[in-house]
Amino acid sequence: MTSTATTQQRSRGGYVDRPSSSSLADVVEIILDKGLVIDAFVRVSLVGIEILTIDARIVIASVDTYLRFAEATNRLDLEQKGGKDLTEVIGATQEQGAKGKVGGALEGAKAALSPDDDEKSSTKAEASKS
Amino acid sequence: MRTDHPDQGESPTGAELYLYGVVRAGTQLPEGLVGVVATIPHLLEDDELAAVVSELPEDADFGTPQDLVAHSAVLDTIAAVTTVLPMRFGTVLPSWQDLREEVLAEPAGLTDVLSQLDGAVQYTVRVQYDQDVVLPEILREDPRLIGLQQAIAGTTEDETRTERIALGEAVVAGFDSLRGPDAQELLQTLDPFVRDLAVHEGGQADDVLDVALLVGRPETDRFEEALEAAAKRDHPRMRYKLLGPQAPYDFVGGGQ
Fold it and tell me: Which of A53, B20, B89, B222 would be B52's cystine partner, CB 3.0–4.6 Å?
């Protein structure tokens, strides 16, 4: 690990992220199943690697992915509203309520009572799940 | 363990040999290499080829994530100075005898691959869209998506699951339609410096490109400059990550 530090050179402080040495996650993705094989002699135990590999290779087209990106647009929305005052937020919430005025008002009240802590923390939970 | 291998520098202990890769005989290994299970890698030479190996301590707790990182660190450090053919992680041979018979005995195939890869190194380039920049772009393209975004705002996942799935699916489709032209443009930019490439499929929806590139050693500086220029051009829509120089993991065959 430390030995690469000397060869992985100059960081240019530019627009390209250039890690000085490969992280475990990078290494798993890049090399775990690559390289010349002499079948009979490959002997790997790799405690704890399987989970990481599966994480790294979850394929994209799944409901979970859709939900994750929907949540990402939601977060975008929260961030954009971050600077506005509360009446605007409540107003926006009421407008969206296809459920009618009562639903909209209730939503608005909920937003007023619990600023956006709830929403933020649930966003975080989503993000850490993914 | 066999110990009946009289000639060249074999393991005096008869320990099993961990094999990182193969280089040409006469190669000088870089100093300071640290291998699997904190061993020191060294060369065992045959006629034309040399194996980069470590003696595995008996009862070593081998095959940990640290070993995987050490395997790649050893290979990448060697690759920075000379051509090395990387073996699949976890290749262990019972003895020098087996190593010679199973790996180095018919060097024609290996020397051919070495010749093809001589004078080149691998880089891995990953480019991802920045969601904060590109998501609004995708949403603006289609008023229907703004409607869905508003419909799910302030709701729980259970309340608007259908809308969320529709929105997410459309966002993923949006990324899909951006990716092709963007990836193509980047590959064209880099084309003058690239001898060979292997695109990694099956990434995340917001990936632009994940690709292994074989770059000639004389071209590495210009390649890195071209990549930096492309990253600057695409900032802030895309984030670039560069790994390497690396051993040519994607270009020795035997992969997936």
Answer: B20
Same domain? For A79 and A33 the reply is no
List the 8-37 stretch of A: residues with Cβ below 8 A of B: 8, 12, 14-19, 21-22, 24, 26-37
Q: Do B232 and A15 touch (CB under 8 A)?
A: yes
Whether A73 and A114 share a structural domain: yes
Where do the domains of chain B lie? Answer: 17-118, 121-251
A82 with A50, same domain: the answer is no
| Window 107-126 of A, Cβ < 8 Å to B | 107, 110-111, 119
ipTM: 0.81
Q: Is the same domain home to A68 and A121?
A: yes
Residue B125: name the closest of B249, B211, B215, B251 by CA.
Answer: B211
**Distance from the A56 Cα atom to the nearest Cα atom in chain B, whole angstroms:** 9
B48-99 pLDDT tens trace: 999 999 999 988 888 888 999 999 999 999 999 999 999 999 899 999 999 9
Question: How far is residue A42 from each of residues A38, B59, B169, measured CA to CA in Å?
Answer: 7, 17, 41
B121-251: CATH, from 1.10.3210, 1.25.40, 3.40.1350, 3.30.70: 3.30.70
Task: Report in angstroms the alpha-carbon separations of A33 from A47, B69, B89.
Answer: 16, 14, 8
What SS3 state is found at A51? helix
Paired tokens of B217: 């050693």
Query: Is A66–B254 a contact, with Cβ atoms under 8 angstroms apart?
Result: no
Q: Do residue A86 and residue A119 come from a single domain?
A: yes
**Per-residue model confidence as pLDDT tens for chain B (256 residues):** 333 444 444 445 678 999 999 999 999 999 999 999 999 999 999 989 999 999 999 888 888 889 999 999 999 999 999 999 999 998 999 999 999 988 888 888 999 999 999 999 999 999 999 999 999 999 999 999 999 999 999 899 999 999 999 999 999 999 999 999 999 999 999 999 999 999 998 778 899 999 999 999 999 999 999 999 999 999 999 999 999 999 999 999 754 3
Q: Structural domain tally of chain A? A: 2
pLDDT at position B7? 45
Same domain, A71 and A102: yes
Residue A31: closest CA among chain B residues belongs to which residue? B249
Answer yes or no: do A95 and A50 share one domain: no
CA distance B178 to chain A (A): 16
Q: What is the residue range of A6's domain?
A: 2-56
Q: What DSSP line would sit under B182-246, residue for residue?
A: HHHHHHHHHGGGEEEEEEPPS--TTEEEEEEEEEEGGGHHHHHHHHHHHHHHHTTTEEEEEEEEE
Minimal Cβ distance to A2: which of B34, B103, B164: B34
User: Of the candidates A15, A29, A73, which has its C-beta nearest B135's C-beta?
Assistant: A73
